[in-house]
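The instructor's notes for this session suggest beginning with a concrete chain rather than abstract definitions. Hand out the sequence below and ask the class to guess, before any prediction is shown, which regions might be ordered.
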Amino acid sequence: MTRFLAVAVPLTLLLASATAAPAVAAPSKPVKSQPTVGTLGTAQMSGGNGLFGVTYTLANSSGMLANTTIVRAEYSVTRYNVDTNRSLLPKAGEKLLILHLRIQNPKPSDQYFSRAVIPFSTVAADGKTRDHNDNQRLASSHEPIATSLKPGQKFPDEILAAGIVPAAGPVPKLILNFGRKGTSEQVTRFALGAAPNVVKPLAAPDADPADPSGATARTEVPATIGATYPLGAYDWQIGSIAYVPGPIGTKSPGANNRFLVVTVILTNQTWKSLYTKYFADASLATDDDEKTKTFAYFKGKRDEVADGRSLDPGESATFRLAFTVPQNAAGKKLKIAEVLDNSSNVSRALLFDLSAIK
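After discussion, reveal the predicted structure:
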């Protein structure tokens, strides 16, 4: 009996083990992919670093080749005439970067060059990239570039290429939108500022004295009577500033008032005829803490209202701007700029101290 019981127990355990359901592994949870940490965007175009004075054989994606040398570069506030139909006129808060290039055809066949010979871009002190693609001409020509060069032939003169950039601060980077032949480069970059890639600075009175590098252009220039200043399309000279009791022709300043008359000599420095009418954006501050932007245009010598006239390239004309001021007040400061277009854009301004005008 004892032996039977000893055998029965292990049989029961075996039967229970045989009839139990097999163990099933728990399903594993799917692993979620982790987001990529970083910034989405476009990678910088591949490019090489260039130096002024060194000639590079540059190529673009269409197969054009150009042996290109940047001879020098300069900042400017004077209008840049592209051709007989178009000029770049820097607005208040702008200046120009002008490149001087030498270009040769390195191909064994003729090659045609148009006005955008070497498109370029700039990165200014504000960090923004600006494209400048259609403002190139021969230094000795008034016409757009449109010519073929034979194998090995050079342009007979420097090519000027200009772009409008901010008035404040230097332009630290220049990008020619051609890569060097024989490389995978798409552009050629020039770090500006250190030799040999030095940009000629602005000079007084155009340069802001707060920036000793000469890279910042004044938006308001202290001016003197009799001096000439390039603003927009015109060179400006203030011939005189004087009080006139009036009337001027049929215009009267009114009781207890007088005119402050500003004589302006304009010279058209573009390569096309311009119709000159409402050309001035001016404001007069008086010593009684008042300010006015209201004035009348008169002809230079006739006491007639100036209703506009055409000026040919290089031609000058005299106008008078008449502000009405009280007899017991005097002009303190005059600010005057050129109206550049119909969108209220104006040039940098000339500032005149009127304290000596009696």
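Then share the key points. The domain at 47-200 is CATH 2.60.40 (Immunoglobulin-like). Residues 1-24, 31-42 have pLDDT under 50 and may be disordered.
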